Amino acid sequence: MIDPKKSCMFASRGNGMVRFHKTSLHRFLAQNQNRFEKNYFEIVMNVFNERFVPFLTGKQELPDADKNDMKKVRFAQTYTSAQITEVWERFFKLIAIHLNDSFELERTKQCNVKSQMTLAPHQHVEEKERNKKRIQCRIP
Known about the structure:
By secondary structure, the chain is mainly alpha-helical. It folds into two domains: about 1-30, no CATH class; about 45-140. The protein has five helices and two strands; from the N terminus they run αββαααα. The chain has helices at about 5, 20-30, 40-55, 80-120, 120-140, and strands at about 10-15, 15-20. Strands 1-2 form a two-stranded antiparallel ribbon. The radius of gyration is 23 Å and the shape is elongated. GO terms for molecular function: heme binding; oxygen binding.
């Protein structure tokens, strides 16, 4: 049985929260994520960039923030808003690239493991048995 506390991820949609199971999310990404067509990591990072950077540059303020309690942004005086925007855009692009590369690498590993299992399933059983024996020999 799937433990909902461990296997759920939440995403906000409007006023409510939408619940995704990690397995279904992983399955969706495995079927639909493509580095050249639809890169969902890049889409998420672009949306995050569009909504996050205006708060850093001062173009948009928090709705409930009091003017007296607000502190000045540390780097607002020395850097222009264009420089801040450019740095954060690079940062989010870098994150999207690394997430995508990691996902593609893991997908290739999983495909290789599945193909090896179908081509030579007996080898995997033998290898697991050897690993169990090694572990048992190490533990006194």
